[in-house]
Design goal:
The protein has seven helices and twelve strands. By secondary structure, the protein is α/β, with parallel strands linked by helices. An eight-stranded mixed β-sheet has the order 7-6-5-8-9-10-11-12. A hairpin with a 5-residue loop joins strand 11 and strand 12.
């Protein structure tokens, strides 16, 4: 199990460095050891190692990259997050949006150039009428299609030609790859650069339990939950109720129903 290091933002540089263990954080049934330091820089490697030892550690967002690099150089295992959890939230949100469409239109486009996200495609296929997969690895996709048909009786269409996405009300891209055509797209994160796509939905937000509001401000909730999900097999986190999603270049967020209406108004049969 990893531990966390928190730090108050307001600090006095002249204070002698201190670290002490606080009461453990209880998050989704997991008890996480918590250590508090009194300043975010000029850290004492010796004092920190005396308490933390070799435990993997998730550290305060107030601690700079320079200090993180120094800790890593001295043997600390500083944890960083991955996209596994937000991808799970994103595919759930995409499925929920399309489930509000008539059955015949519940077709999710799925962009996976190297065929790395078969579990997400499987989830979509088990909840929607059709999934149209755009991939360069059609050999892997063919094996996956046979497996889905054998285990679930669910057909999946796949191709390396982008035309396979043309009749999809929504295209999901877990890696952030965008289609060349101007199709509505769903991404786990905002696109990295400006695009010509009129509708890009991204960054699904979960509805957190009230207990999480008690977490320290310098431990981003999404990041902490991501670590629990990917490192501690706390898979129930993927099932947290979903609340809203962002629309590219718009200040306000959308609920699943609002996102559905947006897509229905743009969808051409």
């Amino acid at each position: 199990m990893f531990c966390v290091v928190v730090c108050k933002k307001n600090h006095r540089t002249s204070l002698r460095f201190r670290i002490r263990e606080q009461e453990s954080l209880s998050v989704f049934g997991k008890n996480i050891r918590c250590f508090a330091i009194n300043r975010p820089h000029h850290l004492s490697i010796k004092k920190m190692y005396h308490l933390i030892g070799n435990s993997p550690v998730f550290i305060s967002s107030f601690i700079s990259q320079k200090e993180r690099t120094l800790l890593e150089a001295n043997g600390f295992c500083i944890l960083s997050t991955d996209d596994l959890l937000v991808q799970q939230w994103a595919i759930r949100f995409a499925v929920e949006i399309l489930q509000n469409f008539p059955l015949s239109q519940q077709i999710l486009g799925f962009i996976d150039p190297e065929f790395c996200y078969s579990s997400l495609a499987c989830f979509a296929l088990c909840h929607l009428k059709q999934v149209h997969l755009l991939t360069n690895r059609t050999d892997h996709a063919a094996l996956f299609a046979d497996k889905m048909m054998a285990e679930y009786g669910a057909p999946i269409s796949f191709s390396s030609n982008e035309n396979i996405l043309s009749d999809c009300p929504l295209v999901f891209s877990p890696s952030g790859s965008l289609p060349q055509a101007d199709l509505p797209v769903f991404l786990p994160h905002p696109p990295k650069k400006e695009t010509h796509h009129k509708i890009i939905l991204h960054s699904p937000q979960a509805i957190f339990p009230e207990s999480l509001s008690m977490l320290p401000d310098d431990l981003p909730v999404n990041d902490l939950l991501s670590l629990l999900y990917s490192r501690e097999n706390c898979h129930c986190i993927a099932d947290i109720p979903l609340g809203s999603i962002l629309l590219q270049n718009q200040p306000s967020s959308l609920t699943p129903c609002q996102a559905t209406e947006l897509l229905k108004n743009s969808y051409v049969l």
